[in-house]
Amino acid sequence: MSSSRRSKRKTTVQDAAARVLLYFISYAVMLLFWEIVMHFRTDGFKFSIWTVLFIPSQAMFLTFLSGWFKNKKYSRIVDVVIALLVCAFYISQLVYHKIFGSFYSVSMMGMGADAVGNFGWGMGSVLKACFGGLLL
After folding, report:
1. What's the pTM value of the predicted model, to 2 decimals?
2. How far apart are CA 38 and CA 9, in angstroms?
3. Number of C-beta neighbours around residue 31 at 10 A
4. Where are the alpha helices (DSSP H) in the chain?
5. pLDDT tens string 37-65
6. With CB atoms 3.0 to 4.6 Å apart as the test, which of 35, 59, 82, 86 could cross-link to 28 if both were Cys?
7. Res 127: pLDDT
8. Alpha helices (H) along 48-71
């Protein structure tokens, strides 16, 4: 292998490593930020060491997901989508905690889907019942 190929390959590997490190750090900072916000808004800032220890594994998993594609364009799109999903998850946790006083679990998500289905059915019945009154 020629020296120019070797140096080009070395640069490519260094670029990939730098990109992975950048994704990992950005996810870790984002997760730490949302955990601090969530704990501050819900517990009065009773922060647990277990939260800090769990963040690197979450960040590594999200880095793996965003680095799945070799194309940088796709990786950036997936990165933005993952960041938006993480933000939506934490915001929904905060809203749920504000309303019900507890965090939701996986079993609650199934009941939430049923509630949304029943809401549509119930709202349709209410509108049908009120339609005559609205005409008057």
Report:
1. 0.67
2. 43
3. 20
4. 3-43, 49-66, 72-100, 106-135
5. 888 888 776 777 887 889 999 999 998 88
6. 59
7. 58
8. 49-66
